[in-house]
Target: DMBT1 protein
Amino acid sequence: RCAGRLEVMHEGQWGTVCSYGWDIKGATVVCRQLGCGSALQVLWNADFGRGSGPIWLSAVNCRGTETDLSECSHEEWGKHYCGHGWDSGVVCSSKESARSSPLRFRLVNGSTACSGRVEMQVQGTWGTLCDSRWDISDAHVLCHQLNCG
Model:
C-alpha cells in the first residue's frame, strides 16, 4: 500500500503522473497524504510498470510541506509530453506518522471480500458511512483503495 506507481483520481478516472519534474518533495507529500510515513525513494520511467488510461499530471513541483498533492503546482490536468514509459512511482517508509491519522475503510456483511456495507475507522472505532451524496465515483475510489478493481 505504501509503494508503487503513483495514480491520481480526476474527473472520476484514475490516471498516472508523468515523472517529468517528479522528485523527493512530491513523494514526501504523497507519503504523508497516504499516511505512509516518509518518502524513501522516488522512481521514474515506469519502474512499477506502465499505467493505462490518462496521464493526468506532469511537471509536478512541490515544496514538500503541502498536505495534498493537488496543492502542488503542475501543468494543466491532462497536459503532458509523456508516455506511460515515464510513469512516476514512490516508496514510502510504510510507518504512519504520529501527526497523520489516515482513514481506514472496509466492507462488511457482503457475499465477497469486495462487496458489502462501507465502514470507516475513526480514532480506532469502526462505524458506518452515511450514503448522503455517495456516488459511483466514490465507489470507484474505495474499490481501488481496497484493491478490489
Summary: The chain has two helices and nine strands.
